[in-house]
Design a protein that fits this description.
- The protein is an alpha+beta fold.
- It has two domains: 37 residues; 320 residues, Up-down Bundle (Outer membrane efflux proteins (OEP)).
- The protein has nine helices and six strands, in the order H-E-H-H-E-E-H-H-E-H-H-E-E-H-H.
- The strands form two sheets. A four-stranded antiparallel sheet has the order 2-3-5-6, with no helix packed on it. A two-stranded parallel sheet has the order 1-4.
- The protein is elongated and about 125 Å long.
Amino acid sequence: MRYKIFGHNPSNIRLINLISLIIISAVFASAVKTYAGSYSFGLKPVSPLRTITLNGAYALAAHRNGDIKAAKEQYYQSTLLKWSALGMVLPDISLKYTDQRLHVNSAPTPPQYAPLMGNIFTFFFPDFEYSLALNEPAINFSAIPAYMSAANARKAAKMSANNISANTLYNVAVDYYTVLNDISLVKADGKTLKEAKSHLELTDAKLKAGLAIITDLLQAKSQFYAAKQEFVSAKNMLKSAKSKLVSIIGVNGNFQVIKPKNPALKKISLRDYIKLAYKNNPGLKSLKFAQKSADDKTGFYESQYMPRIDFTASYNALSDEHFIPQGATNYWTAGAVLTVPIFQGLSRIISIEKARSQANASMYKTIQAKRDLKALVVSEFYNAGSLKSEVGTLKHEERFASKNYMLVEEEFKAGVATSVDVVTALAELIRARHNLLSAKLDYYESVLDLKRLTGSFKRKLISLNVDKFN
């Protein structure tokens, strides 16, 4: 009798090998999972891209932009002028202490009593002398225009800081929409590249089938490489736009943006836009406050001709009664001092004329800035309206170019149209897409600029509560 060995059956051997492979794979997977859980193989999960919204970009610029921080510091410096003006009416208190043991070879104090003591003053030195003096400006008219000038200078600095922050946030918005526009451009050029590649493959197939000539293939290749170059250029433009946005908001690493609501014009007249600009433009308001500050500064120098009354008091003490009349070692004095300025050379006159000249210069700058602001508002108003109409026209042109390309492509597949027709239609489609995206970006920039001129960015102005003395 013959016995068939189980292991010698080929089918059984394959089954055993399969079961062994499954068992070994399970054990290996379990070991790998355990080891990876303990040591993670040094790998970290890929974190998702950081998402930055337009409002988030505003907030980042407010906290990290160097121009805004510098403007806030300049505003803080202007607040110190207010305390300088208040210091003109605050008392001046001083303490003087002299230890005569450190001045052995000097005359005794007070010197007006030394002749009464004869030559013995050389041997009797008081140990110490001190005096506490108070000087309080009772009437100082100069403090009033000085404070008003400082207050207006502070307002001018605040409006200047607001203007810098508004311009910075305007640049943030423009660069943000530029990034979005370049993303759309990359997508459009990527779509064009696929269309050019599809046409190239179709032309190559028709050439092999004898339905096209070599010139058709060369034209299709030329269009494909041109589309590829446009795609690469669009990607580089996107990287450049992102780098500009990064430089303003101060972030590191890669990020993605979310499309916000498109900016649009208000449904108001041009006259209302001009009124809003006169009322809310921080640059114009800064010049107006600077003019007021210069006028008050003129009043400050003119007030130097007015009399001033100071209340003075002092408390004095000596350690040796030999030099004090009637033996009193401590005494105090008090009184009022009237100062009437009569003539101080030409310093005040020159200061007054200089302040008046500064006030006139600020006035002329304000008048010209108002004219320039009106011209900019009018220009941007009509420019935005023109660009809005252009965007509408280019949308129709882009849709027509897209349909025309699809039709010519179908005709080429059917052998009715030539490769030249397809290449020409694709080139027209590329031009229409680029023109539409460019016009949209120009329109958004124009609307944002009009908003900046009319002070619409003031709701996003940076907080300037930096007065460290309050």
